[in-house]
Specification:
Low-confidence stretches: none
Radius of gyration: 14 Å
Order of helices and strands: HEEEHEEEEEE
Strand content: 35-45%
CATH class: Mainly Beta
Number of helices: 2
Number of strands: 9
Mean pLDDT: 96
Largest sheet: 5 strands, antiparallel
CATH topology: OB fold (Dihydrolipoamide Acetyltransferase, E2P)
Shape: globular
């Protein structure tokens, strides 16, 4: 369990994926360039077994943007895409209507 105060520390925002590509040497990792309105970030996600780069480009998803950057297969990731896991398979969360990149998820 975490406290509500800890939960409030999460900064979740809608980002629009501008580009996506598989990371060489990995079957699981996709590298995204994500538009958050006032800034763009590079984010790496382990969803390549389930989604092609083409299937996510141009779409909006929620991301956690205040995680410490991590290096995955030599590539820096500055955030995390949010998904639901159903029987071990990720299902990406999609806003029901288009919203401006950088919109805060509450």
């Amino acid at each position: 369990m975490i406290s509500f105060e800890d939960f409030k520390k999460l900064d979740m925002r809608i980002g629009k994926i501008l580009s996506a590509e598989k990371i060489e040497g990995s079957d699981k990792l996709l590298k995204f360039e994500v538009d958050f309105g006032e800034e763009k970030r590079q984010i790496v996600s382990g969803i390549a077994e389930y989604f092609t780069p083409e299937s996510v480009v141009g779409k909006e998803f929620p991301f956690v943007v205040n995680l410490e950057p991590r290096i995955l297969r030599g590539v820096e990731s500055s955030g995390m895409i949010m998904a639901v896991s159903v029987e071990g398979r990720p299902i990406l969360l999609v806003p029901q209507e288009e919203v401006p990149p950088g919109s805060i998820v509450k």
